[in-house]
Amino acid sequence: MAALGAEEDAFGRYRSPLVSRYASPEMGFNFSERRKFGTWRRLWLYLAQAEKSLGLPITDEQIQEMEANLDNIDFKMAAEEEKRLRHDVMAHVHTFAHCCPKAAAIIHLGATSCYVGDNTDLIVLRDGFNLLLPKLATVISRLADFAEQYADLPTLGFTHYQPAQLTTVGKRCCLWIQDLCMDLQNLERARNDLRFRGVKGTTGTQASFLQLFEGDHDKVEELDRLVTVKAGFKRAYLVTGQTYSRKVDVEVLSVLASLGASIHKICTDIRLLANLKEIEEPFETDQIGSSAMPYKRNPMRSERCCSLARHLMTLVLNPLHTASVQWFERTLDDSANRRVCLAEAFLTADIILSTLQNISEGLVVYPKVIERRIQQELPFMATENIIMAMVKAGGNRQDCHEKIRILSQQAAAVVKQEGGDNDLIARIRADPYFSPIHGQLESLLESTSFTGRASQQVRLWEAA
């Protein structure tokens, strides 16, 4: 096969669609090689600065040299070094040292690989949450606007996906919002619970740093504190093995998986409502729904959210298994798995939030279709009100119940066997038994009288 040019070669290798097709540039960069290795260099700088401030023989010139080369990364050299050394951290130590010859001797002083690896992961996870939280808040805001707009529009409720008591379009949306608000709280908590691994050494005992500072425990503790603050964290984990506990990854991906479940439920509801032609997601003027059926308006955004949400929900199994099989202070079978699942979880969450925002900003409601469906089912739902009205007019409850039962079955047969409309009310109007309440039938069938406190609940939610 002929050699490919750089542009063609980019299409000759697999690229994750999470980045190449869907994710935001910001989240893509957060998990990029440049962000990762740039953070490693900053962590080496923080360590050197803190060690210098506590009395180790590190010069201003060495610090300045490191500062000047934080983003001057020779990725080709690093790749060649890693191929030679079979160790990614030492490959980047050598690459950094190459452009910082004066500081070469003190780069990574006293540290282990997890000093840069795990601490960078914690920084990236924190910043990933910081990217997701405003997007989630925006989705909640857009849906709140939608709920307010349709707070009073009656719609048929469904339990078991069978017709049930009426609710309103806005009240149903509040069910979605409530779940997302729980997710917002969970993501904020998970972000705020993150701590820094800090400066802990090879097995978490800080032995190498205690040796550097000649047994001065106070200086070791202060070193840990200084580096933690420089990295933007208020607290470090008090104890670690070589790594921070992999239970942290379980907590992080659990809240993202829960967010995925919420979005899957919301978008499934939208897909079902699209089939009923009651609500649709945005559909562009030139958008094609099907290559074979030009009339189709498929809910492809909601389908994409459901598809990716399923992937997000399964990713939490990875850190669960990893945490359970970490032997003693650490085993390396966590590494390759974490490279995949942590990034994919945040990228996927980013994608489905962005897509749901797009959906929520352009939802289309068809009130006449909604009303027609209500009228198909409302006569059956109104039978109890009709019975009570007849009793108030002097009728016998049991006689009325039997009359209604017979007429309801006749009307149901027309709907199910003949494909006709529900004619129960017409049958009641034609039956002289119900003449005492014929004048009340319109008010008894007013759909807003069947929605309970749905409208008020929407407004209570807005006030909260």
Strand arrangement in the largest pleated sheet: 1-2
Let me know the largest β-sheet.
2 strands, antiparallel
Report how far apart the termini are.
65 Å
Number of strands: 4
Strand content: under 5%
State the helical fraction: 55-70%
The assembly state of the depicted protein chains is: single chain
Q: Provide the structure class.
A: mainly alpha
Task: List low-pLDDT spans.
Answer: 291-295
How many helices does DSSP assign? 21
Protein name: Adenylosuccinate lyase
Subunit structure: Homotetramer. Residues from neighboring subunits contribute catalytic and substrate-binding residues to each active site.
Organism: Gopherus evgoodei
Pfam family, one: Lyase_1
Describe the protein's architecture and organization:
64% of the residues lie in helices and 4% in strands. It is built from 21 helices and four strands. It has helices spanning 6-10, 17-22, 25-30, 33-53, 60-68, 75-85, 88-99, 113-149, 169-193, 207-212, 217-230, 247-275, 300-315, 317-324, 335-360, 367-381, 383-392, 397-417, 424-430, 441-444, 454-463, and strands spanning 154-159, 162-168, 279-280, 364-365. The radius of gyration is 32 Å and the shape is elongated. The termini are far apart. The model is unreliable at 291-295 (pLDDT under 50).
